[in-house]
């Protein structure tokens, strides 16, 4: 996979994350469902396997979990960058 394909894949993954004040009080969720990004990240942080998360949430797809990780990475990247500018 070349760099351009990787960037395209990353952007497509982020399309799976939605934010609406009408769903879960505006928290980032997966594809408009009431499954928050934080919920999935909490499972992953606790060491839960992707396969077990998919079994617990049958409507999820593997790409949804990847999107959560990508979203967290991008969010953290922006916060660190903003913090560095403020220093």
Could you characterize the architecture of this molecule?
With about 90 residues, the protein is mainly α. It has a single domain, classed as Orthogonal Bundle (Arc Repressor Mutant, subunit A). Helix content is about 60%, strand content about 5%. The protein has 4 helices and 2 strands. Strands 1-2 form a two-stranded antiparallel ribbon. Helix 2 (about 35-45) packs across helix 4 (about 60-85). The longest helix is centred in the last third of the chain and has 25 residues, at about 60-85.
Defining key terms:
87 residues; mainly alpha; Arc Repressor Mutant, subunit A; two-stranded antiparallel sheet; 4 helices; disordered C terminus
- The helix count comes to 4
Strand proportion: under 5%
State the fourth-level CATH superfamily. Winged helix-like DNA-binding domain superfamily/Winged helix DNA-binding domain
Q: Which topology does CATH recognise?
A: Arc Repressor Mutant, subunit A
Number of structurally distinct domains: 1
Termini gap = 37 Å
Number of strands: 2
Order of helices and strands: HEEHHH
Radius of gyration based on Cα positions = 14 Å
What would the principal axes of the Cα set say about the shape?
A: globular
- Biggest pleated-sheet summary: 2 strands, antiparallel
Q: Structural class of the helix and strand makeup? A: mainly alpha
As laid out across the biggest beta sheet, the strand order is 1-2
Helix content: 55-70%
Report the average pLDDT across residues. 83
CATH-defined architecture: Orthogonal Bundle
